[in-house]
Write a structure and sequence with these properties.
This protein is mainly α. The chain has one domain. Helices cover about 65% and strands about 0% of the residues. The chain contains twelve helices and no strands. α2 packs across α12 and α6 packs antiparallel against α7. The longest helix is centred in the C-terminal third of the chain and has 32 residues.
Length: about 290
């Protein structure tokens, strides 16, 4: 514990500030995934609307259950005139694709950084398997079949996803997790406790746990506790408790970002004037 206190006292505060500032880009990257998905589904939302609704919904991330953040975004975008079906499907796709990308990406980074036995061979095979399993040819057909049998019209558009569209979503998600890993590594490099870990291994442990294994913790918001325990284990930390506490500090940095982004977006939303067209009056009679 004395080492932890010394680490906190000697922290490189510039890197913590850089992690905080660059974290705002993740909001736009998440909105971009929704933009790509909704355009594939025939919707034409504005990127600015998607970004603002993502920022306004950030406090919902801290409510138990993983779907509250997505539900808030769906509701807010429905108020902007986007159909509910494509929004719900986009929210589901984001969770599914994010899970596939983070697991595959995390395994590859860990293998590259020497954190897994066998080097890159096993992670690459596993990554390809995860990507194919979530593809339109496998998961897409399975979901479409269930939708037909159950009469779930909201899931019917999933049959329209093609490999180019799927790969576009994969790239969007990969960009998100690459930036998220960079934000995390900036924060961790502020402390001497992380100096002994390579960047690829540190990023891989983060992406695999924060993006993949946290889904195992359904009730805990953002998988709190799962990441703090799993990352030190994957890294083989000499003092897992101290490293876990430092990782929890990263949550506090994100919390400050979320509170500021949500407050600013709510302020802008309250000042935003929405011009609504007058309702069209129907006539039962014939035209004059």
């Amino acid at each position: 514990m004395a080492d932890l206190l010394g680490d906190l006292a000697g922290a490189r505060h510039v890197l913590v500030a850089a992690s905080f500032a660059t974290g705002f880009v993740l909001i736009a990257l998440s909105a971009y995934f929704w933009l790509v998905s909704l355009r594939i589904l025939g919707q034409r939302p504005r990127f600015s609307d998607l970004t603002f609704t993502a920022a306004r919904s950030l406090p919902a991330r801290y409510v138990p259950l993983m779907v509250t953040f997505a539900i808030s975004r769906v509701v807010l975008m429905q108020r902007r005139g986007v159909a509910g079906g494509p929004l719900a499907l986009t929210a589901s796709l984001e969770m599914a694709v994010s899970l596939a990308v983070s697991v595959a990406y995390g395994l590859v980074l860990l293998g590259w950084g020497g954190g897994l036995p066998g080097g890159l061979a096993v992670p690459l095979v596993a990554a390809v398997g995860v990507i194919v399993a979530a593809s339109p040819s496998v998961a897409g057909r399975a979901v479409a079949a269930v939708a037909r049998r159950r009469g779930l019209d909201s899931l019917a558009p999933v049959s329209g996803f093609t490999w180019p569209g799927y790969l576009h979503l994969m790239v969007a998600s990969a960009c998100y997790w690459t930036w998220a890993a960079a934000v995390f590594c900036l924060y961790m490099r502020a402390f001497e406790a992380a100096d002994g870990f390579g960047t690829a291994r540190l990023a891989g442990a983060f992406v695999l746990t924060w993006g993949g294994l946290r889904f195992l913790s359904v009730i805990a918001p953002q998988g709190i506790g799962v990441v703090e325990v799993t990352v030190p284990s994957l890294l083989g930390a000499a003092d897992p408790l101290a490293l876990g506490i430092l990782i929890f500090g990263f949550r506090l940095v994100l919390l400050l970002r979320d509170l500021l982004a949500a407050a600013v977006s709510e302020l802008l939303a309250s000042r935003r004037t929405t011009v609504e067209a007058p309702p069209v009056q129907r006539s039962d009679g014939t035209e004059p």
